[in-house]
TrEMBL record:
Residues 184-350 form the Glycosyl transferase family domain. GO terms for biological process: carbohydrate derivative metabolic process. This is Lipopolysaccharide core biosynthesis protein. It comes from Shimwellia blattae (strain ATCC 29907 / DSM 4481 / JCM 1650 / NBRC 105725 / CDC 9005-74) (Escherichia blattae). InterPro entries: Glyco_trans_1. The gene is rfaG.
């Protein structure tokens, strides 16, 4: 059977993109043909995928997305697929993988009247409504209960259309797949000595992920402690204004930016702590990657996966409404208390050994292919 996957942009280091690749690969491994429609593709192209780069030329994101949708619809009319699976919201999907928050809820909370008059709003609202409206046939693959509550609030979506997926962590992230001397080996490789604290933040879209909050927390540390802290920020984004913020706060030498790296599992083995104080995050797969790596976490409560940190007892969740002082205090406390970090790390490893944090691609493929046969 032919399964068409719709994804605006593919690059190797995004959480949504990694999930797409694993799900599509699992479908292909089960003997089905995978066709992928993208506006752009960065990185290695998997063998066996038919990747179609859709020509778009509009100046705005919403304009390009509309062009993409119309082009793909026309192509599918000429070259039908048995199932159309979307990783971005658009009309005509059989299955939608919901890695983002409810746009209608975000607008209701954050935007004013005049925003709703803009073409951008009309586009994104219409595309979301097409997926979630009552009476639509699209099956909805969800990551958290919070997402479901928001979508049902705005669209009265039928509950039977929602399918909650377990997480899908790459096996190479797990602590037990690292060498026994991983911490010392990878700290040496990255020139981090035994007296330094390595704090890690991983994720593209620095504004949304709260990189400014992490930098401010490092800057707020007592001087002697701050001098021993190195903050690695890894993700696909432009670091300019965040590097300027670090410099302005006197921690420019402490903060290092990297484009997406292939050695995140090594960095997690080397680090003392993961920071993820996001402003908005539907799930936050990096939180679970840290758990499986045995790496303590400090995160914001808005993250859909923040509850895993609380359940595992492997870090601290900063409650809403947000207070920067709470993050500052949590970071200082954790760095000053090795016994606390060790307990968090032990708890994380136990949770990684006893919970299903790995089967998302298989469960997603079951639903997609099961529907094909049904």
């Amino acid at each position: 059977m032919i399964v068409a996957f719709c994804l605006y942009k593919y690059f190797p280091f995004g959480g949504l993109q990694r999930d797409f690749l694993r799900i599509a690969s699992t479908v292909a491994e089960r003997g089905h043909t995978v066709r992928v429609y993208v506006q752009s593709w960065q990185g290695e192209r998997p063998t066996g995928f038919e990747i179609i780069v859709v020509p778009v030329s509009a100046r705005t994101n919403h304009g390009r997305n509309a062009q993409y949708y119309h082009w793909v619809s026309a192509h599918l009319g000429q070259h039908p697929a048995d199932r159309v699976v979307g990783f971005n919201k658009m009309p005509g999907l059989d299955v939608y993988y919901a890695a983002d928050v409810c746009y209608a809820e975000k607008v209701a909370r954050e935007k004013g009247f005049f925003y709703r008059l803009m073409p951008r709003y009309r586009h994104f609202a219409a595309f979301e409504r097409a997926v979630f409206r009552q009476g639509a046939a699209t099956k909805l693959l969800m990551l958290t209960d919070k997402q479901i509550a928001d979508f049902r609030k705005h669209y009265a979506t039928e509950p039977e259309r929602f399918f909650i997926l377990p997480p899908g962590i790459y096996p190479d992230r797990k602590y037990s797949n690292q060498p026994a001397d991983a911490r010392a080996r990878y700290r040496s490789k990255n020139h981090i000595d035994s007296q330094q604290y390595l704090v890690l933040q991983v994720g593209s879209d620095f504004s949304r992920k709260g990189v400014d909050r992490s930098i401010e927390a490092v800057a707020a540390l007592p001087a002697e402690l701050r001098s021993r802290v190195t903050l690695y920020i890894v993700g696909q984004d432009k670091p300019g204004r965040f590097a300027q913020l670090a410099k302005r706060l006197g921690v420019g030498a402490n903060v290092h930016f990297f484009a997406g790296r292939n050695d995140v599992s090594e960095l997690m083995a080397a680090a003392d702590l993961l920071l993820h104080p996001a402003y908005q995050e539907a799930a936050g797969i990096v939180l679970l990657e840290a758990i499986t790596a045995g790496l303590p976490v400090i995160t914001s409560a808005v993250c859909g996966y923040a509850h895993y940190i609380s359940e595992a007892g492997c870090g601290e969740v900063i409650a809403e409404p947000w207070q920067q002082s709470a993050l500052n205090g949590a970071l200082s406390k954790a760095l000053c208390n090795k016994a606390l970090r060790d307990a968090w790390a032990d708890n994380a490893r136990h949770y990684a050994d006893t919970q299903d944090l790995y089967s998302l691609p298989e469960k997603a493929a079951d639903i997609i292919i099961g529907d094909l046969h049904g």
